[in-house]
Give the backbone structure.
Amino acid sequence: MSVRHPELVIAGAVAVSLPMVPGILNGDISGSVAGERFLIALIGCWILGSIISWVLHTYSQQATRAELNRLVSGQDGQTGQHGDQRSSPTEDRA
C-alpha cells in the first residue's frame, strides 16, 4: 500500500489523536495507551490514504486513456456532430 503524501497521513493521525491530549496532560490516559491509540490512528489514516491514492490514480489513468483515445480518433472537440466547424462566440457577434 503506497501513499503519495505520507506527511498528510501523519498530519491526519495527529489531528485524530489531538482530542486525547487533555487526558494525557491530566494523567487520565497513560503514555503507553496514548502511543497505542496514536499507532492505531496512524494505521487507519495510512489505509485510508492508500485507498484515496488508489482511487485518484485509477481515475487519472482513465482520464488520460480517454484523452489519448479522443486525440487518436481525431475528435478534438472543434467539429460538430456532422463534421461542420463550430464558430467561436466572438465570430457570432461580428
About this structure: The chain has one domain: 6-72. Helices lie at 6-17, 21-26, 31-73, 89-93. The chain has a mean pLDDT of 84.
